[in-house]
Amino acid sequence: MRILGIDPGLRTLGWGVIESHGSRLSHVANGLCHSDGDDLGERLLSLHNQIVEVIAAYEPDQAAIEQTFVNKDGAGTLKLGQARGVALLTLAQAGLPVGEYAPNRVKKTVVGVGHAEKEQVLHMVKLQLPGCQPKGADAADALAIAICHAYYGPSKSGLKEARA
Q: Which UniProt keywords apply (predicted)?
């Protein structure tokens, strides 16, 4: 099963693709989608088009995305939600089943601690996907989201049971 993980962001959206074969995981690709400028609609369209390209290039079977967390900056949370909405729409248009995971669940799955730092996530992603060189922290987070989906996704790929 090929899984596309997405770490939503308006300026930088991270993505990562992994293969899950039973209890084995392998890295396929990862990267960043950037949107610049002042026009929100154009930035969201740019993210949509870039995600479409990733889906076309890597043909995932399923997708996973991080749930939005509410922080003190209400405007920032709203913009993050809009970027996440565009990502969800793009995944739905591609016909991909999508798993949604809270940031703490992703960190606990990959690192073992729900409040892990970004450096810890990056380190554990590299350990679990040998040879992987994430193109940035957002790409590492996207790979972590894909790993979380391999454990808990709708296909029940057996990773959780295999490691128990």
A: Cytoplasm, DNA damage, DNA recombination, DNA repair, DNA-binding, Endonuclease, Hydrolase, Magnesium, Metal-binding, Nuclease
